Amino acid sequence: MPPRGAAGCGLILAAPGSGAGKTTVTLGLLRALRQRGLSVRGAKSGPDYIDPRFHQAATGQPCPNLDAWAMSPERLRALAAGPGLLLIEGAMGLFDGAPPEGRGATADLARQLRLPVVLVVDAARMAQSVAPLVAGFAAHDPEVRVAGLILNRVGSARHEAMLRRALAPLGLPVLGALPRAEGLGHPSRHLGLVQAAERSDLEEFLDRAAQAVVSALDLDALLALAEALPEPVRGPRCPPPAQRIAVAEDAAFAFAYPHLLADWRAAGAELAAFSPLADEPPPPADLVLLPGGYPELHAGRLAAAASFRAGMLAAAGRAEVYGECGGYMVLGEGLIDAQGTRHRMLGLLGLETSFAARRLHLGYRRLHAEAGPFAGNWVGHEFHYATTLKAEGAALFSARDAEGTALAPMGLRAGRVSGSFAHLIEPQG
C-alpha cells in the first residue's frame, strides 16, 4: 500500500449475492484500518444513500457513490481518486447489474478502475461446495480478478478447516474467517439499512465490527492486494441549477448525492442547508431543493411545522422549488403513512401518496424534462414503496427504463414548483 500522501490504491469488496455481510465486513475494515492510523476511504458501488453515511462515520472521510451504469469512466476515475487506500463496497452480487446484460454491476467498476476484488462469501450453510462457487466467480470473466477471499459467518474452527481444505486447490488466498456473531447485524427499513444518524450505538457498533475484523482477518495480506488507482481524467461536471440553492437536510431529507452538491459548489454556487424537522424555513435562494429521505416516518412533525410551511409557500412565489422522491411527496397535498393516517403536506403539487399499501418501484431511468431547474436529459434511478393515489397537473419528465422501454411520464410541474420520484445522478448530453 502506498504511504500516506502518495497516489492512492484500491480494493473492491464484493460477494456472490446480496446478504453475504459485505457491509459489516467493509465497515469493520474501514474502522480497523483507520484505528491503525492508515489513510483509508470508503466508496459504494451503485445508487445508494444509506451505506455511504456508515462509511463516512467509520473513516471520517466523505464516501462517494461510484455508479458504473450512470457515470462515465472519467467521472468514476475522478471520484475514486485520492490518497491512501480506497475500499469500494459492491452492491448485490459481483456480476449483478441492470437488465438486460448486467451493466453497472460491481464487476464493471473492477474493469474500469482495474482493481482487484476480494470476495466475501457467506459460508454459514456450506462446506465443500464453497470451492465450485468461488471457482466459478474467479473464472467467469478474465477482466475481473478475484484476488482473495473472506469467509463470513463460519460456524466453528472445524467448519473453517473444512472450508480452507476445499478452497486450497484454487490457489486464492483466504484472508480470514469471521465467525457468526451476535450484535453485528443492522436494523433495516424497506430495501436498506436504518440510517447511520438514527443509530445511537453507531460508534460502539463500528468498534465491535473493527474488533471482529482484527481478530479474524490478516489485514497485512489484505493491504498487500491493493493496486494503484488509475490517474484521474477531468470530465464534465454537472452545472449548478441556480446560483443560490437552499437544501433541506435532516433525518427526513438525507438523500442528496454528494458529487452533485460538490459540482455545484465547485462551479461557484452558494449552498445553504435548513431543517424542516426543526421547523426552519428555507433561507433566501433561487432554488429550494427537498431531497429524498423518509418523510413518511416524520409526516406528523412536517405537517405541524408552521414556519417551514410558510417559508416554502413564500419561496414558491419567488424561486424554483424542486422535490425528489421523499421531497416530491412533501410538495404534494397529502401523505398517508403506514398506519393509514393522512397528513397534510405543502399542497404545492396536485399529488397524494400512501404507504398504507406499499408497492416497490425500482430501477434506473433515462429522463428528459422540457422545463424546470433540471431541464434536459438525465440518468437517474427510482427506488421507493409509495403508492400514488392522485397526480394531477403537467408531467415533468418523459422516462425510459434501463433497457430503453418507454415508461409513463414521471413527476409533476406547476408554475415554479416541480418534482418526481426519480433520483437524478448525472446529466446527459
What would your notes on this structure say?
The chain is of the alpha/beta class. The protein has two domains: 220 residues, Rossmann fold (3-Layer(aba) Sandwich), CATH 3.40.50; 185 residues, 3-Layer(aba) Sandwich (Rossmann fold). Helices cover 26% and strands 29% of the residues. Helix 1 packs across helix 7. The longest helix is centred in the middle third of the chain and has 15 residues. The protein is elongated and about 70 Å long.
Summarize the structure.
By secondary structure, this protein is an alpha/beta fold.
Q: What are its keywords?
A:
429 residues; alpha/beta; Rossmann fold; 2 domains; 8-stranded mixed beta sheet; 6-stranded mixed beta sheet; 26% helix; 29% strand
What is the terminal separation in angstroms?
38 Å
Report the uncertain regions. Answer: 1-6
CATH class of the largest domain: Alpha Beta
Mean pLDDT, rounded to whole units? 94
Q: Helix proportion of residues, in percent?
A: 25-40%
Instruction: Give the overall silhouette.
Output: elongated
The biggest sheet amounts to: 8 strands, mixed
Task: Give me the oligomer status.
Answer: single chain
Count of DSSP H/I helices: 12
Count the E strands. Answer: 25
Q: Per CATH, what is the topology of the largest domain?
A: Rossmann fold
CATH homolog superfamily of the largest domain: P-loop containing nucleotide triphosphate hydrolases
